[in-house]
Amino acid sequence: MRMAQGLPDEMLLNSALIKKLAEEAKDSAVTQGVLMRLQETPNSSEVVSFAPFTLFPTPVPKAVFSQALAVQTHYNTLVDKISQDADFLQEALASTIAVDDFTARLFKIHQQILKEGRSQSIVLGLNRSDYMLDQRENDTPSLKQIEINTIAASFGGLSSRTPDVHRHILKMAGRLEESERILDNNPAAGLARAIAKAWELYGSEKAVVVFFVEDVQRNIFDQRFIEYELWKRNIHVIRLRFEDVFKAGSLDQDKRLFVDGKEVAVVYFRNGYMPDNYTSEQSWDARLLMERSRAVKCPDISTHLAGTKKVQQVLARPGVLERFFPDQPQAVQQIRATFAGLYTLDMGPEGDKTVSMALAAPERFVLKPQREGGGNNIYGSEICQVLEQVKESTERTAYILMDKIHPTPVRNYLMRQGSPLKISNCLSELGVFGAYVRQGKDMVTNECVGHLLRTKSSEHSDGGVAAGVAVLDNPLLF
């Protein structure tokens, strides 16, 4: 199988050329700032390396790539409408919050905010919709959504730098025509543009933007590209953790958020999406304090919940999309075309049918818990192990079942620090970044701001770049 149109097997297998290009690729990645910080703790030295990436770009059909970009503004609108529909969130998540403590804690904050009344009418959404190309034998590849990330959607920064790396490598390899087909891509600028608009609408030039981060940052450079775009606009950025907000955060009588005396206009969450992020009750108290404040949250708690797997599954039911797009059949059609098969595990006949279906043919499905961050999904015989344990219990409602997508493998080299250089059969996942700002009932901006291609060896079923499985890539459209 050819890596791409115009990149023949004899080139991929030319060991001397590959070794030379690999060394050049590493230098290019460092020069372009495609870097990750692998360690950042008070008692250790910092270790910086190039972020993992493919040696060559991966072929992607132009038609499905265009489809993914075109539907993104509809997904932005959908997420925003879901976040405003308290009845829908209550309905959709009722079974999940009864058994999943993490989702239940988030939902409790959501309920408290509804009870008190929202303090801020400005809503900022930065999300990423992820897809794979489903290609059965002799079929045209079709775009199928894996998930939509409404919190801490990463790699908008580093994916803004990788195009120049692949352009350079292809030129070095004598593939000038292919190098010119690498797309410009700058999600960092688009994400920062939306943050800046929310900051502007907040209306205080002295107020800061908070990047809310983890104690240990393995992907700090990705965040820095967005941060520096804001500094270019003279918007002051600070980085805070749960501990900082708990110790030094407060609300004034108008619910303005202050931390160490600085007024906060926007809180951009790059942390808070996994149970392990909340190390104590103080973490939950800090999250509630931020949600109660007048600061613009990205995402606010309702938008965070809109990105759960259970909501994704409910949206695939007949007639549900029409609830959010009552007079837009074309938008409904475009969104629904990207859905893979999604099935409930709620208690009752429908959920029982899903359990039987999964146990009979586990290789056809993916079992998904309500978790973000990669590496959480369950495949193959492990699906049977989990479902056999919970099939008669309400615990099964903490999961959804999804059809397994079958992309076509492509051969490539995965460039990782300290890993041997070898050719691998690879699978890719396309992410599309969306950014929107709403003030009251008015959508101020709604954009598709870029893309991300991640590639992993086909021997791995699950896991992203931060999880150490996938690497950064670029689409080569054909």
Count of DSSP-assigned helices: 17
Major beta sheet, specifics? 7 strands, antiparallel
- Shape assignment: globular
Number of strands: 21
- Spatial extent as radius of gyration: 22 Å
Task: Walk me through what this model shows.
This protein has 478 residues and is α+β, with helices and mostly antiparallel strands. The chain has helices at residues 9-12, 15-32, 62-84, 86-97, 101-116, 162-172, 176-179, 187-202, 220-232, 242-248, 281-292, 301-306, 309-315, 320-324, 329-336, 349-360, 381-390; strands spanning 35-39, 47-50, 53-54, 58-60, 122-134, 142-149, 208-212, 237-240, 249-251, 257-259, 262-269, 296-298, 342-343, 365-369, 378-379, 399-403, 410-415, 423-439, 442-457, 471-473, 475-477. The longest helix has 23 residues, at 62-84.
Topology:
Blueprint: H1 9-12, H2 15-32, E1 35-39, E2 47-50, E3 53-54, E4 58-60, H3 62-84, H4 86-97, H5 101-116, E5 122-134, E6 142-149, H6 162-172, H7 176-179, H8 187-202, E7 208-212, H9 220-232, E8 237-240, H10 242-248, E9 249-251, E10 257-259, E11 262-269, H11 281-292, E12 296-298, H12 301-306, H13 309-315, H14 320-324, H15 329-336, E13 342-343, H16 349-360, E14 365-369, E15 378-379, H17 381-390, E16 399-403, E17 410-415, E18 423-439, E19 442-457, E20 471-473, E21 475-477
Parallel strand pairs: 4-21, 7-8, 7-11, 11-12
Antiparallel strand pairs: 1-2, 3-17, 5-6, 5-18, 9-10, 10-11, 13-16, 14-15, 14-16, 17-18, 18-19, 19-20
Helix pairs in contact: 2-6, 5-11, 8-9, 10-11
